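Q: Here's a chain of 304 amino acids. Please give me its 3D structure as tokens.
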Amino acid sequence: MNIKAKFKSILEMIIFSIFFVVFYLVTRTSFNSFTRKVHLDDAKYYIIFEFLFFLSIALAIFVTQLPMNAIRKRFGIEEKTKLLTDIFVSSRWGSDLLLGFSIGAIFMSVTMALAYLGGAYTLEHSINFNINFAVPLVFFLLVGLAEELIFRGFVFLTIEKGFGTRWAIVIASLLFGFFHMANKLNGIAEDYKPLCCLFLAIEAGFLLNAAFLIRRNLWIPVGIHWSWNLFETSIFGAKEGQIDFLPSLFTGHYQPGLFLPGFPMGMESCYITVATGLITGCILMKYAKSNRARQVLQATKSRT
């Protein structure tokens, strides 16, 4: 990688960070001002806020492209800034989203089953058949779209252009993990938040980066992110006070032993999740590499 490309990546990250912070603060302040006048229940509040958060990210990426195109011309960098639509447009977005959702559902189900068998997770003997899945389905889809847009759609691709794929995987995973330092925790869990964020970078950041590399669009990682949160929270009920406004099919509780003290961020603080996440990430990475090799081979044959 040449110096110009590295400089461009760093500068693009800085410019985006400035725009994102500004747009986020304006959005947060305006929304809080609105909710002081208009009462919203928790479900509506978080769904609307997550949607506005997604729009803030998209707007920051779009606005960042404007000065970056000028800088590209000034320094003679031939590579164009990737358009926002490029990471979403796909003729098979529906099947990719379903594929990702299936991977996430199987992953979380297996992880929860192992936690149950290991005594780290227990279930109450009741099932909530009256659950309305509309709220968690919409909320967690927006969470997946927002976080995948910023960490795979922007951070990963920007770092990759200047420093290569390996560094993009490492940096995007770490930033994704430690982004969750913003999560509010109580008691002893707060003391273990940094270590839990490292767990999250390993078990989820790496896995989602590998999923992104399969197609190089956002739909597979969005699907995984969507069902990961949905199954953990609204199917297995492993919330422990994190997202109390969302209903769940089952009600579960964590048990000490295989978790960081205080259960920071739920299953994400479990040693079992670190193991299953790392294994799943390695499988997806191997598939992404083989898929890329097939694409290169087909492209070579088509040229000949």
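Q: Can you summarize the key feature?
A: The first strand starts at residue 121 and ends at 127.
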